[in-house]
Design goal:
- It catalyses: GTP + H2O = GDP + phosphate + H(+).
- With 306 residues, the chain is of the alpha/beta class.
- The chain contains 12 helices and 8 strands.
- It has an 8-stranded mixed sheet, with helices on both faces.
- Strand 6, helix 11 and strand 7 form a beta-alpha-beta unit.
- It is elongated.
- The structure holds guanosine-5'-diphosphate.
Length: 306
């Protein structure tokens, strides 16, 4: 929790110092305070839709109770944000990187556009699973970028896990097939497959991801067990747009939101969680392996309000 606080410092500075400044010298939550709150939420990248929802709910409470003191605003806002954040119900919520019982290998397909921290997230995940005693196989399925394949191979060496790679410009589905095959044959616990993140055309993306899924299902009807979308938390509106594109193209089951250490706009986590109803499973708060953290709603909300 300490490093989460540290990682999210910019979010806190942005969000909560602004809120405290907005209510200085005011005892009562009135229209002016709500306007300020709305502005703060928007400028923290919570997104218009979710901001409006939060403001409405607080307005309703003010109307119902006739009065709300600014000193209560903190805890009320905390409650409202907690309602909007989806609970992380995944097996490894405790941070111990367990895989679901009886699922072997647990297959994770990772999607997202270039530059969001996809490769780094896969490397960090591999490291944490490996550290938890899990046998991991990686698949370098982002075959459109030489750098992605090379970078994943480096992570594999660094962590000490095998990386299935067919080089550049090869069929990502074939990489996925071989990765799951090797994972199955060698008794791996987890297979993590990278994919190309080009949003070239929607139909292409959709077909490509569907094909990757199909070949994985040759080994297990439930594979991939997780489709993890990686988003860069510092890109605000772009992260929303990418979430929209990818959820249209495939069934995204979990989110990793990276680079929250580099932004005062952690509100993206709240807005995306609310609008897409997909659990945020990991957050990235820095470049070190342990900076990929298992998302906890409680810890996140508390860190915003400290
Ligand atoms: P990809 O193109 O999506 O595979 O992106 P990379 O994994 O190559 O990451 C792009 C850059 O973002 C790299 O320099 C990473 O070290 C950096 N990065 C990834 N996640 C985080 C994070 O949570 N915090 C910070 N500060 N940097 C990150």
């Amino acid at each position: 929790a300490e490093s989460l606080d540290k990682g999210l410092e910019k979010t806190k500075d942005g969000f909560f110092s602004k809120l405290s400044r907005a209510i200085v010298g005011k005892s009562k939550v009135d229209e002016e305070v709500l306007d300020e709150l709305e502005e703060i939420l928007i400028s923290s990248d919570v997104g218009v839709e979710t901001t409006v929802k939060i403001i409405r709910r607080i307005e309703d409470r003010v109307a119902r109770d006739k009065f709300m003191s600014t000193s209560e605003l903190d805890s009320i806002l905390r409650e409202e944000i907690a309602v909007l954040l989806s609970e992380n119900k995944s097996a490894d919520v405790s941070g111990d990187f367990e895989t679901p019982l009886g699922v072997k290998p647990y297959v994770i397909m990772v999607v997202g556009v270039n530059g969001v921290g996809k490769t780094t997230t896969i490397g960090k995940l591999a490291a944490q699973y490996h550290k938890a005693g899990k046998k991991v196989v990686l698949g370098a399925g982002d075959t459109f970028r030489a750098a992605a394949v090379d970078q994943l191979k480096l992570w594999g060496e660094r962590v000490g896990v095998p990386v299935i790679d067919h080089g550049m410009n090869t069929d990502p589905a074939s990489v996925a097939y071989d990765a799951v095959k090797q994972g199955t044959e060698t008794g791996a616990d987890v297979v993590i497959v990278d994919t190309a993140g080009r949003l070239h055309t929607k139909v292409n993306l959709m077909n490509e991801l569907a094909k990757i899924k199909r070949v994985m299902q040759k080994f297990s009807a439930e594979a991939p067990h997780e489709v993890l979308l990686v988003l860069d938390g510092s890109t605000g509106q772009n992260a929303f747009i990418q979430a929209q594109e990818f959820t249209k193209a495939t069934e995204v089951t979990a989110l990793a939101i990276t680079k929250l250490d580099g932004t005062a706009k952690g509100g993206v986590v709240i807005g995306i969680s609310d609008q897409f109803k997909i659990p945020v499973k990991y957050i990235g708060v820095g470049e070190r392996i342990e900076d990929l953290q298992v998302f906890s709603k409680q810890t996140f909300v508390e860190s915003l309000f400290k």
